[in-house]
TrEMBL record:
Domain Methyltransferase, residue spans: 37-130
Organism: Streptomyces flavofungini
PANTHER family recorded: METHYLTRANSFERASE (PTHR42912)
Keyword Mitochondrion: no
One GO MF term attached to the UniProt entry: methyltransferase activity
Protein name in UniProt: Class I SAM-dependent methyltransferase
InterPro entries xrefs: Methyltransf_25, Methyltransf_Superfamily, SAM-dependent_MTases_sf
Length: 242
């Protein structure tokens, strides 16, 4: 990412300074609001936003190790009690109905076993009028409306931002992994290095056909239930995963 990499945040996703700016703008949060970072990893993105926007943060991740690391990092960003982290999944966050004012989900939704269920879960935990901002990569030539799954979950689509430089960034990163295989194996061990190298080999050929987007959704203020929309039987949608 070069100087677009937010060193303090240390994201393990594709989050860069431009994405942090987009999240700050599109969430439209006020001081004291509650933000959920679903698929938070080690917490850097949510913690940066919690400090910048003076909001309370709840982070959710499937990995207990990531949750512990996020909790440890919290003190370097916000006062004690402003951020909390716990284990959960994209389809079962452990949060109550209408619990948060906003949700972010950065580079995690594509890993959900039940993507539609994950979107319904984000809708459920949002208060009416609240926004969810998700990142997503799709392949060129997808048929059907781009946001058919989001609308089926009950969301109104507020805006879609294209991140034109993101596939190039991943291409550089994957190329570096492959060219420095021996260094990766020495530093991380064979098991973790092989996982990364397999991802690079799998994803590199797909990048020219990939478009990265930031999608801003809103739970309508009228509070209609998440079941308000259903997927058309003829909908065909190709989304990049992993």
């Amino acid at each position: 990412m070069g100087d677009a990499y937010p060193v303090e945040v240390a994201p393990t996703s594709s989050c860069d300074w431009p994405l942090l700016g987009t999240l700050t703008t599109n969430l439209r949060l006020g001081p004291g609001d509650v933000l959920a970072d679903v698929g938070c990893g080690t917490g850097g993105v949510g913690l940066w936003l919690a400090r910048a926007l003076a909001v309370r943060l709840v982070g959710v991740d499937i990995s207990p190790v990531a949750v512990r690391l996020a909790a440890t990092r919290a003190a370097t960003f916000v006062p004690q009690g402003q951020a909390q982290f716990h284990t959960g999944t994209l389809t079962a966050t452990g949060l109550s109905d209408r619990h948060v004012n906003a949700v972010i989900c950065v580079d995690a939704l594509s890993r959900a076993d039940d993507r539609q269920g994950a979107l319904r879960e984000l809708y459920r935990i949002l208060r009416p009028g609240g926004r969810a901002v998700i990142t997503r990569a799709t392949r060129h030539g997808a048929r059907g409306p781009l946001t058919v799954h989001e609308e089926a979950a009950g969301f109104a689509v507020e805006r879609v931002d294209v991140r034109a430089a993101e596939p190039h960034m991943w291409g550089r990163l994957y190329g570096l992994w492959l060219s420095r295989e021996n260094e990766l194996r020495r530093e991380l061990g064979n098991r973790e290095a092989e996982r990364m190298l397999a991802e690079a080999r799998r994803q590199l050929p797909r990048l020219p056909d990939r478009t990265a987007r930031v999608i801003t959704l809103q739970r309508p203020a009228d509070g209609r239930p998440a079941s308000a929309g259903t997927l058309p039987e003829t909908a065909v949608y190709r989304e990049e995963s992993g």
